[in-house]
Amino acid sequence: MRRVTRNISLPLSQIRRWPEFGVILAFSTIFIFFSVLAPMFFTIRNLTGIFTIVSELGIMTIGIAFLMIAGEFDLSVSSVYAFAGFIFVTLGNSINSLLALIITLVAAGCIGFLNGTITMRARIPSFIATLGMMMFIRGIMMAITGGRTVAYHGDLIVPTLLTRFIGHGFRPSHVWFVALTVLFSLILTRTRYGNWVFATGGRKEVARSMGVNINRVKLINFIISSLMAGLAGSIAINRFSVANPSFGIGMELEAIASAVIGGTFLTGGHGTIIGAFFGAFLMGTIRIGLIMVGAPAYWYMAFVGAIVIIAATINIKLRRLEM
Amino acid sequence: MQRDLPLVRMANISKWFGAVQALNNVSIEVRHKEVLGLLGDNGAGKSTLIKILAGVFPPDEGEIYFNEEPVKFSSPKEARARGIETVHQELSLVNIMTISRNFFLGREPTRRIGSISLLDKKKMDEECSRVIGEVGIRVRSPNEYVSILSGGERQAISIGRAMYFGAKLLILDEPMTALSVKETRKVIEHIEEARESGASVIFITHNVYHVYPVADRFVMLNKGVKTGEFGKEEHEAEEIIEMVASSEGVL
Ligand SMILES: Nc1ncnc2c1ncn2[C@@H]1O[C@H](COP(=O)(O)OP(=O)(O)OP(=O)(O)O)[C@@H](O)[C@H]1O
Ligand SMILES: [Mg+2]
Predict the structure, then answer these.
(1) For the segment A123-137, what is each residue's pLDDT rounded down to a tens digit?
(2) Is there a domain that residue A148 lies in?
(3) pTM given for the model
(4) Which stretches of chain A are assigned E, i.e. beta strand?
(5) Record: contact A196-B106, CB cut-off 8 A
């Protein structure tokens, strides 16, 4: 019996070596699909436009994936995204924008710290703790601003650093996204910390008994998740030059969907940042592609929903057969 | 180092979980290069006792001495640093990680590139392959997932890992649960090898036959109380089974 199972698992284990294989294949297929169907799709202007929205979603997705691999969720990222924009605009209108950005990121990090502390101290699922945080931040923001939009008229340092055009439609945010993908991919696969992240999400009792400080790992990852959402939000508001308290609603699910499409397990312990990168690209490509073939915007949701279900099913199958 | 001084001594250990007293004034010692069989029925407190020794949680009362030096472990990491390696009942491996990543979990070797230190994957894989070979497992690569291994192979790797990291005391909590007869025999071989290389072993089990061939001494627990302590020469396996079953003890 054992021999048989082993033989079946042989080709699969080779695919397993390349966990991003599935998402890259899906991305390529959909990319080619839209390139053929929509004549204006495969143009530098459009592709860099996709890159722009993907960078913002993708930076958030990196943080989400990193945290999910450690076995926890963060639903508050979408609120942190809008909240960061608000803080940045408010501060940036009166002080140096770089300082405003730093304070914004510190504030975002603090929310992550709070998420982690609540989750671990109160021993409630992070799904619930961060759902509460998501609503709490959004509610406070709505109440304080009365839903009004505020415009940014501070200096150009941060806008230039984050998102102003650098030619052919490319923006610095694209570079940040790629750089952060490489950085977090390295941390996850090539450092001791990365190994602890996998173990914490894979089986926390074992991780702990092997000397891993699992609470610290989780706390750090909560902070990273919030930080990345804060950065994504800062990029977005610098692109629009206005902040609105309803920015980013529903984006947490898009980010989780991107991570899952990219091969991250909802149950933790497995996933890749490169996969999350392509997951975010898949989402952005579908969104823009559907618009370009003239489909009503609602189709985006339906499409993404179907793909999430397929991706999660494939993840489970791989896990049953191989792991 | 004097042979007759114990390697580890746990003195007057008590532990409560809420209203449940899991351990009541239990004292045990483990001598150098000895295999101690820790026996007792379900819920006797065996796992609780060794978890205290492994630094998983502290005792409510009592002291631990390592080489006659009082020690307090506030985490498993501190116990590991002293050379106390545990193969827990619930297994000590993460199934959805590779063998080599599991092997070095918490003690990953690194190499520095400038100011950053990265995992030394090459060393991890090489050392891990070597130990896999030594414990006699046939897997294609240390980058296989643990989940494809059999129960016996997993225990062999856990024991191999403990010895690789220089365990002075190897604690095995029911290492033969769900193992075949052949795998059980393998694990006994690994325990003998561990003792030969100078380690002491605490071996927890329900099944006296599993531990009898290798054990030097036995301690019996029942409902959190130590009910017996004797050398192998004092009792036959059948008598010990009788004692565990009737839990009358000999103290
Ligand atoms: N973390 C815990 N919280 C609450 N009670 C616990 C905990 N761990 C153990 N106990 C209780 O302590 C007692 C001793 O448990 P322990 O696991 O040490 O027994 P054991 O001898 O290892 O049993 P087994 O042979 O079934 O593994 C039991 O009554 C158990 O329910
Ligand atoms: Mg037990």
Answers:
(1) 999 999 999 999 999
(2) yes
(3) 0.89
(4) 150-151, 242-243
(5) yes
